[in-house]
Amino acid sequence: MTKMGTRTVASLATALVLVLDGCTGADVGGRAPEDARAFFTGKTMTYIVATEPGGGYDTYGRLVSKYLGKHLGLNHVVVKNVAGGSHLLGTNQIYTARPDGLTLGTFNAGLIYAQLLRRDGLHADLKRMSWVGKAGDEPRFFTVSKRSGFRSFDDVRRAGRPLLLGANGVGNEGYYDTLLLARALGLQVKLVFGLPTRDAQLSMMRGEIDGEIGSASSHRQFVRNGYGHTVLRVGHGEDADAQIPDANDLVTTAEGKALVALVRAQSTLMRWTAGPPAIPDDRLAVLRDGYMAALRDPALIAEARKFDIPIVPMDGATLAKEVERALAQSPEALALIASAVGIPFQTAGR
Fold first, then answer.
1. Do the first three CATH levels of 36-137+270-338 and 140-266 match, i.e. the same topology?
2. Residue 184: what pLDDT?
């Protein structure tokens, strides 16, 4: 072989290595492709909480993001509160974020109803989001103010007037839960908006509203401090005293049972974490593994006990299936939901 021929063969060999490198993703010199876990090491994550600081979503979001950052090897996690539009603003920001795995967030599960009913302002498609996992699952409580004069659900039923109930805004869990349960139980209610849980409880203490429907953990201390009474629950959990009547036992019609079941189903999806669509599969797998490791971390569990909040994990793959199932409502169910919240059915069409 000539000298020139030797160079040619060497060049072809080098080219072949480069072609194979492009096919396998390996670097010249035998280095492995970037590990998806290594991608997160030393980086900064933005974790969006779609509500104001201080409430239940903020508490869960800060706790989960802190330990998720630890288990991913992140340098820092910036928690960003994006309140407005009953969680719509924050949710839309999560949805449109760069899908690199470094922007996640949490928002109200009531947006499932918003998507089903095609609510204006929701630009996210929950089916397409990258679901990382969820941390909560607890009963829904109907708590009334001590100043309302009500002590039991029978007292509430005998009110003879519309009940003034607090709600943060149109479209969140409390809004839908209140209207669906009112329809199921035959209650007259008037919603007073602009009252997230803490503000609603202050309003109850002042005697301005009668009560609120919300998560058990959000109501626990209010009742313990003697400011009110929990007169009804939906679902089971450590706070669900058997002496508190379960809504499912009080409704007798098929429609009522269906509405209570919807409220319970949504409560099992509380305190979730999601990212924008199209996060690469390998990075999403790392995020999901890190999330579950965070929720099993003894230090997180100890902090959750200190905050008096339950941790009931669900992995991201399972959560994605549950969200898809929640969005796959029949036309009959959609008509029932729309009727209960006072929206013409054609607005809820798909």
1. yes
2. 94
- Domain segments of the chain: what residues? 36-137+270-338, 140-266
Highest mean pLDDT among 31-35, 102-106, 338-342: 102-106
Residue 89 has φ and ψ, to the nearest 5°, of -60, -50
Q: Which fold would CATH assign to domain 140-266?
A: D-Maltodextrin-Binding Protein; domain 2 (3.40.190)
- pLDDT confidence of 137, banded at 50, 70, 90? confident
Contact at 8 Å (CB) between 109 and 173? Answer: yes
Is 350's pLDDT higher than 50? no
First-to-last C-alpha distance (Å) of the chain = 72
pLDDT digits (tens, 9 = 90+) for 39-96: 999 999 999 999 989 888 999 999 999 999 999 999 999 999 999 888 999 999 999 9
- Fold type of domain 36-137+270-338: D-Maltodextrin-Binding Protein; domain 2 (3.40.190)
CA atoms of 22 and 209, how far apart (whole Å): 66
pLDDT attached to residue 314: 95
CA-to-CA distance for 286 and 281, rounded, in angstroms? 9
Q: Look up tokens 């499912």; give the residue.
A: 248
Max Cα–Cα distance, the chain, nearest Å: 105
311 vs 329: CA distance, rounded Å:
28
DSSP letter for each residue of 6-70:
HHHHHHHHHHHHHHHHHHH-PPTTSPPPPPHHHHHTT-EEEEEESS-TTSHHHHHHHHHHHHHHH
SS3 call for 106 = strand
DSSP character at residue 246: B
CA 343 to the chain's CA centroid: 24
